[in-house]
Amino acid sequence: MVAGNLGRSAFHFGTNLKMHQTPQQTLAFLDGLISDGCVSSERSQLFVIPPFTSLHGAASHPAHQHLWLGAQTMHWADSGPFTGEISPTMLAGIGVDLVLLGHAERRQLFHETDVMINKKALAAIRHHLRVLLCVGETAKERHLGISEATVLRQLELALDGLPGSGADLLMVAYEPIWSIGVTGRAAQPGEIRVVINAIHSFLQGRFGAESSIPILYGGSVDVNNCRAFAKMPGIDGLFVGRAAWTPAGFAAVLKAAESSRFGA
Ligand code: PGA
Predict the structure, then answer these.
(1) Which residues are catalytic?
(2) Would you give the DSSP letter of residue 145?
(3) Phi-psi sector, 46: left (phi>0), alpha (psi -120 to 50), beta
(4) Do residues 13 and 240 touch, judged by C-beta distance below 8 A?
(5) Cα separation of 245 and 195, whole Å?
(6) What is the pLDDT of residues 65-115, one digit of tens each?
């Protein structure tokens, strides 16, 4: 099944379900996105990133004609003695469109390094999977005034050796680690402007001004604060966690973000 593709200039909007939902619950979630009218949006490129076990069923759900389906991580090898891991071949084989790489929880809780993320990014592109690459600094790095340097280092290492043609499959999500999850606090748009601009300049320098790689913001995005992020120059989409884990929540944040960005 080929997921709809609204193009690079579309607003990008999606959620990572983390370790939530059984396969049946994900199908019900996708049913809900259809009945809440989300998938008929012609202004936003939607994506949903459920657990591995939900991917196969979700790939043949009718909602998948309108959104990209993503995996939360993957190994870089096509196959091999890597117990517990999932390969790009396996993901591509069931019709997955994108893979999330470098999420802060993978980096912090599962010790994923920039070198591992780089191998994964290169493998994903080789298999024509879209990459949603997460970057972001810790509270300490922000306090020390090295947010920009940290994020640029993450980008430089993750994208090392990526061919220019890979830019078409790349999206970057800036997620300051201090803003993620129930223990995080939502950023103020003013606090993230400098890093968003730095990411933009880096990507233009690396892939050319015309590459227009979407830059998404994530971290405690909700129905209230999404409006300010959605209309911020340099932000091409939102990557939402817990506020979008129900169809009603997903629809509410999407609609609020779209009305702020595009007008009612
Ligand atoms: P949150 O999650 O919106 O629940 O903070 C964001 C993320 O982890 O990507």
Answers:
(1) 103, 175
(2) T
(3) beta
(4) yes
(5) 27
(6) 999 999 999 999 999 999 999 999 999 999 999 999 999 999 999 999 999
Are the C-beta atoms of residues 131 and 101 closer than 8 Å to each other? yes
The DSSP-derived string for 25-37 is HHHHHHHHHHHTT
Nearest to 69 by CA among 99, 41, 90, 89: 99
Size of the chain in residues: 264
Distance 62 CA to ligand 1 centre (A): 26
CB distance 3 to 68 below 8 Å: yes
Q: How far is 40 from 229, CA to CA, in rounded Å?
A: 22
Structure tokens at 87: 């390969």
Q: Which amino acid residue places its CA nearest to atom 7 of ligand 1?
A: 241
pLDDT over 70 at 2, yes or no: no
Tracing tokens 């973000």 back to the chain, one arrives at 257
Residue type, 249: G
The CB of 240 under 6 Å from ligand 1? The reply is: yes
Alpha carbon distances (Å) from 134 to 72, 112, 118, 121: 11, 12, 12, 11
Q: What are phi and psi of 134, to 5 degrees?
A: -95, 135
